UniProtKB/TrEMBL annotation, chains A, B:
SUPFAM superfamilies: lambda repressor-like DNA-binding domains, Periplasmic binding protein-like I. One of its GO terms (molecular function) is DNA-binding transcription factor activity. This is LacI family transcriptional regulator. Pfam families: LacI, Peripla_BP_3. Gene3D superfamilies: 3.40.50.2300, lambda repressor-like DNA-binding domains. It comes from Thermocatellispora tengchongensis. Residues 5-60 form the HTH lacI-type domain. InterPro entries: HTH_LacI, LacI/GalR-like_sensor, Lambda_DNA-bd_dom_sf, Peripla_BP_I. Transmembrane segments: none annotated. Keywords: DNA-binding, Transcription, Transcription regulation.
Length: 340, 340
DNA sequence: TGGGCGCCGGAAAGCGTTTTCCTGGCTGAA
DNA sequence: TTCAGCCAGGAAAACGCTTTCCGGCGCCCA
């Protein structure tokens, strides 16, 4: 198999020096005379030359790759974010390298190391931080090394000191949601909290609780569980089991993210509990699949695509702009109803 | 900012030659004595050395990147496939570079060129081919150049002569679906066909029609439209508009993919048409979000994750194994009912 | 004891670009 | 006409690795 044509092949074919060929084909501040320029271009076309990006990256010591780390591409939340990140990166002429961690913090750290080895231009890390000092510290250390080597990084989600971050306004969103639901007349709530070590989940629970308090309502019943759909399903079943005891009188349940809410909906349906007639359900994120659910799900909208876009900008900006939080907006739909 | 430590720094720090350091740190067939090996390892640790993959790729002329091209990461179909591809690639020690084309064939060709420039090890192309000879030809040419340069490629979806492909058995799946629906007593069908230039869509329509014919039923009413959710929504509305004329008597509608079916479901609901009481609906693919819909959607299951995995294997295999089609399996759910 | 052989280390030649100098020819101003 | 200054073009030194040789040493076997 004939190896790809190299720049040297082109130069020889055109009868010019390597330097000239490089200047013509891969851009430079320097000018090249019209005649030579055309000779080079013709030669390149004839040989089917394509720049070897790896070599280029080495010589320029700057790659045009952006690294993206997400938990799970098949989760709609990350799918939307990743899509936006890829799109925005392409707009900037960058290719995207993705890694999935499946919520394993070690994998996350490892992936940052891999991307650092690739000497990618920037890294975007999507996904919640964890309430584990030593793991967080190691991640930060890894990121610091990357940034120390001239790379740039941006996060989506929880803040990590010293790294630019697009933070969704989890507390405020959950706070407003609580007030809105209180406004519908609900007084007794349950919260499917997700795991207590996930800062995003914790923030939302706290914001929600604060919102209830502000409305003069008692603390909600907290039901922990995994952060995914099946976690929501199980938590909802736990809630049902408590109906006659601690959960008596609960008319509304808040799942700290949409996929959990979807799972909860499925559990309720499976157990013959009508939503919203018997119980109201709300989620958080506003993933796109929600609109096609019956009943459609009340949630707090996060500008997911926009967040992805902004993270790329943040990671590419030479100046580190302060990150204003991404505003969250309550969206009331069919899954929550007014009670007397 | 202190630039990253290089292998030469490590070698000097350890008092050995570059060659020895390389052999210790980045693998080699050759042995290195215990004493030196330890010196090198210690030096690397002290300096925080990380291999520069770009340089390594250049020197080895073989990268450890796999390129993935999909239409749209936020479409559940591609999200699942991409997830599997990333996962399997990681298992093989490869990083994945993704590109999204948003169904633009030019973008697809362009992305293959970009990946070729990166000299990625292999390319996986997910997404339907198009019934446009010249575009297809150019894509094939681009892939050929990539393979000519020593790369490997695999497709998911439509076959493209000379490239290894994981083909879902669209015809057979649609054929079986038609027979199953006929078995439920339906006789008059509509098909939301998607665009006529999408080979996947065409295959499914043809398979479905053939299945109906085999059951002794007349040809279905064909309603074209875009291949996405909103296309399904619009096509369903068109169907409703024809209820009293050409679509009279239609009791079952087949959307050639699930996201279209979801859109159709939404349209029917918006127009107060009960599914499955007034009309049955079926889709194709079995994307994961389906199970949480009400009514749950009848569909043809494709082993999406498995297809992604197999595509990676195909792209990595040195021997080009013949591609047996991925088998499609009819899954009857609540959205289709038995009629008298 | 001597001649192969096998191994371990190191020197150096790549891998395909970019970029810094250097050179020689022109231009324009004095 | 001369000289400073500019500019296009080329030679060659990076960029950070891998890998091919080559030399030297110890070992085994005759």
């Amino acid at each position: 198999m004939p190896r790809d044509a190299t720049l040297e092949d082109v130069a020889r074919h055109a009868g010019v020096s390597l330097a000239t060929a490089s200047r013509v084909l891969n851009g430079s501040t320097r000018q090249v005379g019209r005649a030579l320029r055309e000779r080079v271009e013709r030669a390149a076309a004839e040989l089917g030359y394509t720049t070897n990006r790896a070599a280029q990256a080495l010589a320029r010591s700057a790659s045009d790759i952006l690294g993206l780390v997400v938990h799970d591409l098949s989760d709609p939340y990350f799918a939307v974010v990743a899509n936006a990140v890829v799109r925005e990166s392409e707009r900037h002429g960058l290719s995207v390298m993705v890694g999935t961690t499946f919520r394993d913090p070690e994998a996350e750290i490892g992936y940052v190391a891999t991307l650092r080895a690739q000497r990618v231009r920037a890294i975007v890390l999507a996904g919640s931080r964890i309430a584990d000092e030593t793991v967080t510290e190691r991640l930060r250390a890894e990121i610091d090394r990357f940034q120390g080597g001239g790379g740039r990084a941006a996060l989506i989600g929880q803040d990590l000191l010293g790294v630019d971050t697009v933070v969704p306004d989890n507390r405020a969103g959950a706070y407003e949601l609580a007030r809105a639901l209180a406004g519908l007349g609900h007084t007794r709530f349950a919260v499917l909290t997700g795991p207590s070590f996930l800062l995003t989940a914790v923030d939302r629970v706290e914001g929600f609780t604060a919102g209830l308090a502000a409305a003069g309502l008692p603390e909600p019943l907290l039901i922990p569980g995994p952060f995914d759909r099946d976690g929501g399903y199980l938590a909802a079943e736990r809630l049902l089991a408590l109906r006659d005891t601690t959960a008596a009188g609960v008319t509304c349940v808040f799942a700290v993210n949409d996929v959990m809410a979807v799972g909860a909906l499925a559990a309720l349906r499976a157990h013959g509990v009508a939503v919203p007639e018997q119980i109201s359900v709300a989620g958080f994120d506003d993933i796109p699949t929600l609109r096609d659910l019956t009943p459609s799900l009340t949630t707090v909208r996060l500008p997911l695509a926009d967040m992805g876009r902004r993270a790329v900008e943040l990671a590419l900006a030479t100046t580190g702009p302060a990150a204003e939080p991404a505003t969250a907006e309550v969206v009331l739909r069919e899954s929550t109803r007014r009670v007397s």
